[in-house]
Description:
By secondary structure, this protein is α+β, with helices and mostly antiparallel strands. The chain has helices at residues 22-33, 43-46, and strands at residues 2-7, 13-17, 52-54, 57-60, 63-66.
Amino acid sequence: MLLRVVNIVSGDERYFDAIFGPVAALAAVYARTEMKDWDVRDYERKYVPLVQFCGEVFRLGDWVCWAKSF
């Protein structure tokens, strides 16, 4: 199963294996695309605390990831 991470402004989409979970997938996409940060060792410390949960959706910046995979 895959998690879809979508930029709600540009429509860009990225896909991650569901094993990572929506928060980690969202943090990785945001770090790589917005911050140009490829050092995965610090993602949990730097980006995970910034993730917001809104109902069925996790959000970070303009990126969203649904809580359920498809």
